[in-house]
Specification:
By secondary structure, this protein is of the alpha/beta class. The chain has helices at residues 2-20, 45-63, 81-90, 126-143, 158-161, 178-185, 187-207, 215-224, 242-308, 310-349, 399-409, 429-436; strands at 23-29, 67-71, 95-102, 112-116, 149-154, 167-174, 354-363, 381-385, 388-396, 417-422, 425-427. A six-stranded mixed sheet has the order 2-1-3-6-4-5, sandwiched between helices. A five-stranded antiparallel sheet has the order 8-9-7-10-11.
Amino acid sequence: MKRICLLFAFLVMVFGVYGAKKVTWVIDAGHGGRDVGCEGKLAKEKDITLAVAKEVGRLVQKHISGVRVVYTREKDKYLSLQERCDIANARGATLFISIHVNSAANHFARGTESFYATNVPLKGTQAGKSELLALLLQRQYLSHGRVNSRGVKQREMYVCEHTNMPCVLTEIGFISNFNEEAYLHSKDGQKELADAIYNALAEWKDMTKNGSVSKRDLQQFRITHYAPIKKAANTTTKVADTDDEEAEAKKKAEAKKEAEAKKEAEAKKEEEAKKEAEAKKEEEAKKEAEAKKEAEAKKEAEAKKEEEAKKEEEAKKEAEAKKEEEAKKETEAKKKEEAKKEAETKKDTNSKKPYFAIQLMNSATQLKDGDYRLKGYKNVRQIPSNGRFKVIYGHSESYKDIKNELVQVRETFPEAFIVAFSGDKQITTAEALQQQK
């Protein structure tokens, strides 16, 4: 009896030790609920990301020991960006990966890309682990047939900057490209993407098991991540569930036929739209020519009228010239006053006292006033950053006020988040709050 008790105590101790070594990985399916994300002809971003995220989690739980998988959502549910970060931070996760689908006005845009944060003071050397995972993801996508890699990029993504562990946001394709949408919507495509992400995670776990990332390895991957893995050197072989292979093969043929039929229908629609656009262009050109003729005739009539009234207008012009001179002086005085006020306003704005604002988006080009992407928002500032432009809205020294305003802004810009400035210099929200104490 004593031996049995001792054996039981030993087993409890062993299992307790091994249980304690288990780490948590958080898999985030982008968007959800009322936030559908990007929409295509066949599918919505929120549905694709959820399917891929769950398949990745299934593969990790089945093939990687010592890892506990936590999903930010397992169904069509709305979560704010901060709620997603809170889930990871509260569980002491050692990795956070957020899966998204891309979209662009250019319907030929395609490929995968992965992002990691640029401004994460709390993470320190963790940034190297984030970059490593992003590089491994892009290499695995290429090795699984995704021939277009848009590379690894540094961006100030909200979830990457507000989590306390290595974090990557990966875009698995363009829903705005019909061929890629058909692939993303298919079961075969979703499984292939999940296999690629799983293999990258397995590689990452093995390479970071000593707690740090070799600078030499990072430098090597920065150079070679655009090249797919050779089969002979592939140590993380593609996972294939034999139970599903036969069913998937049948579905693949059906999905291909469906995609080709939809592609043909889409081509017909595009041709009809092109003809309609050309007809509309011709009609507009005709109207423009008629308007031009009418303007020229009106201009000639006015010229004749001006010639006849020239003598009468001379006296009038003289009086108007005097009036214009007085108005000019008044305008100049007004401009000086406005310049003075503007200088004072600018001086106040450039003061070192920190304030908060809301970043609506990050644009590749500087947007003009009234651009449809601003969705009606006016009085925005556009700050150059790494060849792009941060679109900033609002200004408040109160974090509470700007946080309340963010709730309304996210109804239009779900990805919007709070940023902080000290004069013209951007700082972290934590630094701004510390300076205000």
